[in-house]
Design goal:
six-stranded antiparallel beta sheet, single chain, 19 strands, alpha+beta, about 35% helix, eight-stranded antiparallel beta sheet
Amino acid sequence: MHRKNFGRNRVLQPSAAYTPADEQEILEILDRHSGQSIRAVGRLHSWSEAILGGGVQLDLRRLDDVLLEPDGEDFVATVGAGCQVKRILKELNRGGATLHSLGLIDVQTIAGAISTGTHGSGRHSMSHYVEEVRIARYDESTGLAFIDEVSAGEPLLAARCSLGSLGIILSVKIRCRAQYNIQEHFTESRRLENVLDAEESYPLQQFYFIPWRWSYFIQHRREDTGKRSLLAKLYRLYWFGVMDYAMHLKILFLKRILRNRRMIRFSFRRIVSVFLIRKWKVTDRSSSMLVMNHEAFRHIEIELFVPRDKLADALRFTKEVIEVAGGTESTMSEVNQRRIEEIGMQEALDELQDQYCQHYPICVRRVLPDDTLISMASGGDQDWYAVSFISYAKPARRAGFTLFSRFMARSMSQLFEARPHWGKIGPLEASELTSLYPRFDSFRTVCKTLDPQGVFQNEWTTALLEADDESS
């Protein structure tokens, strides 16, 4: 019995697997397997070790109810843990509501999305808006399973992004808002300063750092009180046919079939921009504008969060590493070369030389600070920027990307306080990860209080909880 994740880089081999129909059945399963390791899984659209578990596995897809209620001028929704985001959006729209924050895809379950800090651009992550999490766990005095409602204090802050480490999430109560429209258009700029200045007018924008062309494609977005554009359907067809499929098929051809680095570089310098229609301003419903069919083709991804005051240096560093990895440069600038030497990674940089060619735009999204303990944007008084690196190489040909990912995570965490996304490739050791979060010790305390026997952990989360937190 085994299942593979979306990226085909993780294999789940549970000792027993269930798809319970309701909460009572979940409690019965927990009592039946008392003392054993138990983990829940969502739709397996994660590349990290968070989804692994060799014990009892619970697939909660049948817990998918959505209850929308008014809450002052806004709304609150109670959602079953296994409900996919796309179903949530559909049900909320019936009541004239939507989620505050959306990621690039909508196939994840709500429990999986909040447990790993799923985010969009220009707002907080989904986790920030969670008001209550109902969890199945064990009563320490009786040893029996029961349902705990976590709705305040540090337990709530931990439950908002928990890595599945507190218990089995049954449902989530999340703040929602009235449905709204977004206006969107694209421009291109050579200067990061211009991109960031545009945030004042377009607070929901995201942008793409184009490798080998080294310019920025900016997807300007802002709320719009106007009506849906007459050409909104045509714009959606353009996105679906051109951006979601045609451009990706071109990348797949270059990377998987042709496998020619010169053609990849030429394509980004001269051809990719052809796919982009600039300054076409279109207004459409938020849930249509904010998501993509990013799951249409199998890929693997690492995403690193850096604070705003380090973004410019981090992107300059990124450009130089990509050039070394792609074999177009043998050394970095004097400033970055000195940085590499100071953190003792010159040998790692030498090993990366000419081993990996970046073949996908680098997506950058702004995330407002979260009120959580360990989501990637938690803490601090400045915005975070998620910098995403994606590979469409076949699973058997990912050695270069693995080397690149490890180098970027290790170097950027030390130089720019970069935090790897919990749900994506995370090459850092447990102690390196936990040291990036000033409140990880508080998270550890909540986990050990709610799950003192560690039955809801896997090897990866256990290592995190047992790691020495040098920042505490």
